[in-house]
């Protein structure tokens, strides 16, 4: 069941992954991945406290699982506990420095608290790990635009849009840069 849930999750079939995780829970099968899938479903439903409880159970089973730590950080952000989330994301990238999603989430959380330099560093790390992903490019463009640096913001946003033409952040930065 664990393998089936992982395959469903990776293929983008979240509903199937949740159903498999539910079946496993019914059968009293406990595995960090299954707990993470169940937690994600709870978080999507706005049930953050319950999601956090499942993620903490998953972390107890696999203390160095950077994906679980990252998911805990996401729940903390949703609960507006951003300083705690930053610590979780920092722990995730310490455990697994090559996990781009943890760097993106760290950048986003630092961005929320107004730490532009810290956010920029995290986004740059994410971009270096997965240069084809538009998220870090768009986030860096947004930070540059916020600083008033249109000359830096425009090429970053153009690169994000090239990588994902429908990226809303890239489009917003480009539209704003056109107004400058």
Count of beta strands: 0
Average pLDDT taken over every residue: 92
How many DSSP H or I helices? 11
Helix and strand composition category = mainly alpha
Radius of gyration: 18 Å
N→C terminal distance: 54 Å
Helix fraction? over 70%
Largest sheet: none
Q: What is the strand content? A: under 5%
Throw out a few tags for this protein.
11 helices, 0% strand, mainly alpha, 180 residues
How would you portray this structure in words?
The chain starts with a helix and ends with a helix. It contains 11 helices and no strands. The chain is an all-alpha fold and 180 residues long. The protein is elongated and about 60 Å long. The mean pLDDT is 92.
Question: What is the element layout, followed by pairings?
Answer:
Elements: H1 2-10, H2 14-26, H3 32-44, H4 48-61, H5 66-78, H6 82-95, H7 100-112, H8 116-129, H9 134-146, H10 150-163, H11 168-179
